[in-house]
Amino acid sequence: MSRIACRCGYVLVVEDEAMGQPVACPNCGAPLVADDERGPERGPERGPEPAVPLQGTARLTHTVPVPPGRPAHEGARPEPSGQGPRKPQSGTGRPRPWPIAAAAVVVVVAAVLVVLRPWERPPAGEKKEVKGTAWRTEELPSPLAATPPTTPARPADPAAQPPSLPPAQPAKEPSPLPPFPPPTKIPAQPDVPEAPKADPAAAETAFRRGEAAFENGRYGEAIEAYGEAIRLNPKHAPAHTWRGRAYLLTAKYPEAIADYDQAIALDPKGQVFKYRNRAEAHWNSGSREAAAADFRKVLDLCEQECERDPKAAGPANRLAWTLATLPVAELRDGRRAVQLATAACQQTAFESYEYVGTLAAACAEAGDFPAAIKWSQQAIDRAPEARRPALTKELEAYRAGKPWRDPPQS
Fold first, then answer.
1. What homologous superfamily is domain 310-410 in, according to CATH?
2. What's the CATH number for 200-308?
3. What is the pLDDT of residues 49-79, one digit of tens each?
4. Fewer Cβ atoms within 10 Å of its own Cβ: the N or the C terminal residue of the chain?
């Protein structure tokens, strides 16, 4: 099989037996000659070869035999100049017109868009006249706002009147919102003075000044001096102890308890005096259970002192006074108090007014009020002037047949 290209753009397929014989193009009707040397040729009306590419194939209906052994020609030989191409005839091989039709449709659509300009159309319901166009928008009624057709009112029937409706209540005005509260003003923090530096020497000087004021009964001045000593040396245990005693004598029991708490924590010495004064502060403030616990602690400490030094007068005197004057009944023991107080007085030859006063309190607790009155009077005679008023109160209690209690019972 061989192919022969016509000038009209069609390619014809011929058999090898038809090579060298004239053939007519089924598209344009031009005569062709299948020649392996010259290629396909047309008749007398030959012209230049068309510049368009080959656009299809057509089967040859009239073929002639081609001598065997001759090669097939793929293309047509150019035609001599001076002869134009023949116009294609109508038939099955005519070129398709769809590109031209598509281009025409595009041109028409573009023209319509340019004329109508739909992108400039105003929203629904708005009147606007567009220049260069032949249409104008009109305001159309909204379907939601359409009013139903009105029906003619029927004449009122006087026999059947509808029930009267209550009058419409006026709409209540919304209550005004409460005003915003004014901004809270934060008070300015006062300048906190810097804590004074520890000065043990100055603290000791202030403590001595407080002792002098305490001995003269100026308890307010003593409290200030002890406070200055504590500010200069917060770990000054004696200042806490004696300021607590000054608070106790001025009936400031919470302050006294706080000072004795600090004194007990700072210094293990002198615990009997501290616990007894704190117990007195608890008792006078109404905390009887806390006072009883401190009184038991005092009694235990006195017992330990006597066990460590049985012949010492001081521990024996403190234990005797505790057993004779505690306000808790189950902790008192009058007979043992008399024994201990007598031993302490014998060791000092009855020269100490404090030990003699303890013996008087022990005799009163044991029920021997004549002996209590005797020893109490001797204690007053030997005591300094500052201590006589307190000892006089004890003597009056013995004369009234009452034992002495420390702290005194109200």
1. Tetratricopeptide repeat domain (1.25.40.10)
2. 1.25.40.10
3. 443 344 444 444 444 444 444 444 444 444 4
4. C
